[in-house]
Amino acid sequence: MMARTFLPPGFRFHPADVGLVMYHLKRKVIGKNVTFEVISELNIYKYSPWDLPGINFFWSVLVAGMSSSKTYRSSQDERAQ
Length: 81
Prior knowledge:
By secondary structure, the protein is an all-alpha fold. Helix content is 32%, strand content 0%. It has helices at 17-30, 55-66.
């Protein structure tokens, strides 16, 4: 794994599919220099699926979305009048 590169404040990495494949991944595969190492390399075979970095982030977002409470009111509800 390469040394961690610190990105400038406010850096946003959100390329379109074509830009991701044709520019970022292509340059990484053929070994050309890239300005910032935004795509890190990870040997996924060294980890179990539940141990992969980042999985906790997506799981916590999913759980947070499911646990939000909503108030359903109807015309018969005293608070709605």
